[in-house]
Amino acid sequence: MELNINNLVKEFGSFDDPSNRVVAVDHVNLSVGEGELVTLLGPSGCGKTTLLRMIAGFEDPTSGDVFFGEERVNNVAPNQRNATMVFQSYAIFPHLNVYENIAFGLRLKKIKEKEIEEKMEQVIDLVGLTGLESRQPSQLSGGQQQRVALARAIVMEPALLLFDEPLSNLDAKLREQMRIEIRNLQKRLGITSVYVTHDQAEAMSISDRIVVMNKGRIVQIGTPFDLYARPANSFVAAFIGKVNFMPVRIKDKGCVQIGGATLQVTEMPSGCSVDDTLIAALRPESLIIGHITEESNIYDRGRIIRRTFLGTIIEYEIEVHNEYFSENLIVHTVNPMTPDLFEIGETVFIRCKEEAIHILCETPDLSNSR
User: Fold this and answer.
1) Could you tell me if 39 and 183 are in contact, meaning their C-beta atoms sit under 8 angstroms apart?
2) pTM metric for this prediction
3) CA-CA distance, 225 to 209, in Å (whole number)?
């Protein structure tokens, strides 16, 4: 089933006093294709959960429309929308065992017991709860409780599956495991899904597309790769992973000046002119550092002030002060698996990978870097 959201608005507060009115969702338009998993991503208070609740029917829009396929569902009750939600708190009944929790919705619909048994056998196996059917929720781990909540949602065979930060109560290792399980299950069943999270890594790992929201509005929609490599603005660049912001001066023939180097770039923002000063968004892995040699004199230099071991990568913070800019830059290098690392206090050369330079149509304000 395709989901379409047209010009959706949600306001809270007094309609008699505009000064007390809060616009939680501000004229949002979004289409989710059949079988697609789209994530709503943004900081707390950006409107993503309110948008999800309007899709589910738990909140009424102030204006705008929600369509499930060709059907406008604004006035359809939540239990009639053929959509199920997996909640952050699991919302499983403490007095019912695993089997009874999962079967609850089926029995509420008065489905025949034989059909319930068939559906239950399939879904319990699908989510990996075989052998735990008679356990009480208090006897389950956090991951097992989340599987119960997931099973209860998919056993209803919904046209639309909604997730409201379902993994936020789990520890980091289990959260990573459950991401994979949810994504594999969603792809296997082909259920159109909308997933809310504030966790960038979670969104990047499970989504077909990500919708970045801020202050009630959609800022950018794209694949995880597009948002990471080609953010629309500095907000998206900073929210999706770590980033360095550096001033660039536009030169002719597709060239820019970054620091003391003139580099060729593959894309220029539309509307920019020669001698404009804009912002380059550079991911930590887009920068290369090395020991100072005679050949490295053409590059900018910086002093390492921090080194952090992150497993597969080493993160360096490098202080750069020159005539072009003054900033601390974050650089990621692959862990060489040897003690041969750059030392704190060492002066290194630093240069950009030309193919990874992404220029934003914004003027520099480096006070908000990273």
Assistant:
1) no
2) 0.90
3) 9
DSSP letter at 111 equals: -
- Cα distances (angstroms) measured from residue 259 to each of 274, 288, 327: 16, 14, 11
356: helix, strand or coil: helix
As a whole number of angstroms, the distance between CA 226 and CA 230 comes to: 5
Nearest CA among 29, 25, 41, 68 for reference residue 207: 41
Listing DSSP states for 169-214 in one string gives: TS-HHHHHHHHHHHHHHHHHHT-EEEEEES-HHHHHHH-SEEEEEE
d(Cα 61, Cα 51) in Å, to the nearest integer? 9
Predicted confidence (pLDDT) per residue in 225-277, tens digit: 999 999 999 999 999 999 999 999 998 878 899 888 888 888 888 888 888 89
CA–CA gap between residue 110 and residue 344 (Å, rounded): 68
User: CA 368, CA 245: separation in Å to the nearest integer?
Assistant: 9
The DSSP secondary-structure symbol of 129 reads -
Residue range 164-188, pLDDT digits in tens: 999 888 888 888 988 998 999 999 9
Cα distance between residue 287 and residue 299, in whole Å: 12
**Which two structure tokens, joined as six digits, stand for 248?**
């660039």
